[in-house]
Task: inverse folding
């Protein structure tokens, strides 16, 4: 999810589309939160790991 967010963020910045930049930033934040929660051992949505 973080990689997809980075790709969308870069495409949005290069093309100049604010919507892609916003979606990319949101995906990066959500992916980072899920990664941190999974690394601490906390189960999120019934799963311990998000791949």
Result:
């Amino acid at each position: 999810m973080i990689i997809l967010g980075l790709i969308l963020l870069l495409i949005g910045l290069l093309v100049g589309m604010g919507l892609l930049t916003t979606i990319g930033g949101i995906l990066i934040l959500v992916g980072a939160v899920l990664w941190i929660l999974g690394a601490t051992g906390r189960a999120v949505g019934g799963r311990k790991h998000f791949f």
